[in-house]
Amino acid sequence: MAHILMGVSGSAACFKAAALCSQLTREQHQVQVVLTPAAAQMVTPLQFSCLSGKAALCDEFDPQHPSGMDHIAFADEADVLVVVPATANTLGILAQGLALHLLGSLALAFDPSKPRLFAPAMHPRMWANPAVQRNVGVLVSDGWQMIGPEEGSTACGSVGLGRMAEVAAIFQAIANIQIS
Fold first, then answer.
1. Which of 23, 84, 145, 180 is deepest in the core (most CB within 10 A)?
2. Residues with catalytic roles
3. String of b and e for 75-113 (b: at least 16 CB within 10 Å)?
């Protein structure tokens, strides 16, 4: 059983994050969900709280941990950090080491020797953008593992590379990690 810190960023693929959270919880993993403000506009923290059995985090200035420092405490408790879906905006924040919201702060506080994964989800032209590709390259060179994206139909009806990997593939990537 792993302690998984799941970052959810604002994408139409948020429904897949909910399905992944449910599957991880059914497999007895402890899942702490952190939503970006944009994600909280697309899905409710309550949905993830119901699925994980833990209050979903969203606001850096409404701490849930008794220490009052969620970004440190929850990063310390986790074995794995997975960001799903990872939007172009979130990839940029993570690659540049910015703490623009709680997820960014948690990612900075998370031990880089532990597994960090991300599953991109965006329009194919956004995915192909050189800036996005630079950010992905930075993350991969910093030790992050990328899952996907896949070729297929996106939420806006476009077809191409940028569709988020399916829940089964993300779940398998997490299951393949050796937790020390």
1. 84
2. 156
3. beebbbbbbbbbbbbbbbbbbeeeeebbbbbbbbbbeee
Task: Provide the domain count of the chain.
Answer: 1
Q: Both tokens of residue 7?
A: 């970052």
Residues of the chain with pLDDT under 50: none
In this structure, what CATH number is given to the domain that contains residue 17? 3.40.50.1950
**What is the predicted pLDDT for the residue at 175?**
94
pLDDT at 21: 98
pTM of the model: 0.95
Q: Output the CA angle 25-65-10, nearest 5 degrees.
A: 60
Q: Is residue 130 part of a domain?
A: yes
Residue whose pair of structure tokens reads 């398998």 in the numeric block: 172
Q: What pLDDT is attached to residue 66?
A: 67
Q: Is residue 1 domain-resident?
A: no
